[in-house]
Amino acid sequence: MIHIFGCGGHSLVVLDTLEALNKTDIVFYDDKVITDPEFEQYKFGGAIADCVPDKINDSFIVAIGNNAIRKNIFLKFSQQMKALNPVHPSAIISKHSSIKQGSVVFAGAIINRKACIEENVIINTGAIIEHECIIGSHTHVAPGSTLCGSVTIGENCLIGANSTILPCLTVGAGSIIGAGSVVTKNVPPNTVVKNSY
Question: Residue 83 in contact with residue 5, Cβ under 8 Å?
């Protein structure tokens, strides 16, 4: 059984990836009532706190875009069962890269040689992670983003849609790179970048 925490928009993309991988033994949890008919064919297990996993056979995915909430749920349930790291079949992943537990890679994403994706990371639709990049735990790389070679992203960052980070730069933990931004120098921790930096 795969336990999915969250029933919002982000969970639809997780579900699409799981269906593409022919995974259908799924139960959803959310602290609010599910109203989207997309979820009707799957079991609803109630609030997130209601989940009681079987440690041997069950696994989970946190399908929530908010980094802080996703991190808290991941840390709680990773003590109880295995975190899956589904990769959409259309993604291109170098066999010389690594993706740690709980991370998801969506359709059309590219992860090149010697890239390292830490725990509970979202590599969203069409994102490009070039060679030797390191993506810290609980970070979200939004659709269409490009991380050029040897970029290091700290934990709990948001790399906004269609942003570009030039080679060999570091984005400090907790930073937000706004959609469409071009990052040309290192970003200190807990910094918000808009447009060019």
Answer: no
Active site residues: 131
Quote the CA–CA distance of 174 and 154 in Å, as a whole number: 7
Q: For every residue of the chain, which 3-state class applies, written as one string?
A: CEEEECCCHHHHHHHHHHHHCCCCCEEEECCCCCCCHHHCCCEECCCHHHCCCCCCCCEEEECCCCHHHHHHHHHHHCCCCEECCCECCCCEECCCCEECCCCEECCCCEECCCCEECCCCEECCCCEECCCCEECCCCEECCCCEECCCCEECCCCEECCCCEECCCCEECCCCEECCCCEECCCECCCCEECCEC
pLDDT averaged over consecutive 10-residue blocks of the chain (197 residues)?
Answer: 94 95 94 84 92 84 96 94 96 98 98 98 98 98 98 98 98 98 97 85
pLDDT score, position 159: 98
Query: What is the model's pLDDT at position 197?
Result: 64
Rounded to whole angstroms, the Cα distance separating 125 from 91 reads 9
What does pTM read for this prediction? Answer: 0.94
Cα 1 to Cα 122: distance, rounded to the nearest angstrom: 21
Cβ burial, residue 76 (10 Å; 0-12/13-18/19+): middle
